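Sequence in, structure out.
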Amino acid sequence: PEGWVTGESGGTADAYSAQFFTGSENSDALVEQMITRYPGIEEAKLEFTMERDQATGITPTTLDIGDESFGYIDVNYVVVLFRKGNVIVKIEDTRTEYQDNPTISNAKQYAEIVAQRFR
């Protein structure tokens, strides 16, 4: 989105990660994106379920992104995860202002941008 710059990024044939900042890499506003491709849909479904089960003590919110998705807020960071076929995308949004006013909105918007680019 406008006002954000790309930081560190890299990956392999089956995994990719990137960081995005507002202003500079020293900014408190940081979004991390991790995309992982699994050998098959069943493996991706299993991993997705395990990720959801690891969100203990938190009530995940079901989102309408990809084949299945959820998001949650944990103190000062937000996580949105979605699966599309055999690919899982994880968006983590960490900002100090979330301690006072937590919202899933920004991480969800990033996830929607990624989901729109699937072929």
